[in-house]
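Here is one chain, start to finish.
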Amino acid sequence: MSQLFNEAKRRLKDAAKHLEVDPDLLEKLKYPKETLSASLLVRMDDGSRRSFKAWRCRYDDTRGPTKGGIRFHPNVNLDEVMTLAFWMAFKCAIVNLPFGGAKGGVAVDTSTLSKHEYERLARAYVKAFSGFIGPDRDIPAPDMYANEMVMGWMADEYSAIVGQPSPAVITGKPIELGGSLGRNDATGRGGYYVLRHLESVLGLSAEKTKVIVQGFGNVGFHVAHLLRNDGFKIVGLSDSRGAIYDPDGLDPLDVMQHKQDTGSVMGARTYGKAQELTNADLLEQECDVLIPAAMEHQITSENAPNVKAKVILELANGPISPGGDKNLYERGIVVIPDILANAGGVTVSYFEWVQNKAGFYWELEDIHARLRRRLEPEAIRLWNLSNEKGIDMRTSAYMMALERLNAAVAAHGTRAYFCS
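Its structure:
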């Protein structure tokens, strides 16, 4: 097993030490329920055919159909997909969604594909996994380098295979194809709601808080834009090509426009004398709130001692290694863990699935209100549990999720029940 997957399971064991968890649950969570690998053979624009490795993992369905995105990235692999599926099971449990955890991936650099090739690849994925997914079995969603149009192609392909419209099989679709209002900014907005709900206990105030966002994609843009509108000062932003840092502040709208025009945040207009840095350097700059919104393991035992933030809001999946976690906790830096902080995306995906099932669609204000009601109570409960137990928030988050998973397993009957 990969280091990433073993680290994820180690965090589960750490949380289980603080609870009376039935052995049946820990045994069930040792390995994924099922995984499927496939080779997607796609006709390219030049007439040649090319194979792409692809995976889907359904980690656990104790609480309902599995749910999780499809990641298109050249470095994605089965171990990463399994780990992401594991995290999704806990993410759904902590915000009390009736879902289990799943994830998918395709090893591809989408920038090398034409639009036609990308569509063929997306449809090939659905053909390969059509017996694995389903609106009551496993519901994919967008992840890295997949947008709503890609999800629309996938939903269309599945509907063609089963011979009837099946919008509930995929979430993150275009509004016109059964998508939900509020899905596009849901992950960033969810993180924004969590941070703002906890700001008083964290000792933050908008006008005095400097924020760095590492990873200026969809998620990073929306959380930065929402926070700046509330008076927070955004002092650092980055993408895959580099970073800009300006203690006088940055306008996320201006920077995003520059990125769309040039392909990078580098060179964007700022209010003072901006520094151009690497992604790694940006993590070590002065700020109050650091928001990793890029890839896994951005903060490790090596660079964690140089992190100067007071609070870290994890909007990426697994951006801090266990060694990094240990150092940050010992130094009193609060980490709001990914399985709650970035759960806005899967929460609004759940809303989309419910709306598809019912054939009745909610207004944007209703989506936002429902999202807040899901996240805010869990955020303060997480904070209180962490302080009550004297442990870090990540371990507390896993405890909260384990309690719900444990209750679901116990409802089927455990060894204690059958041997009594």
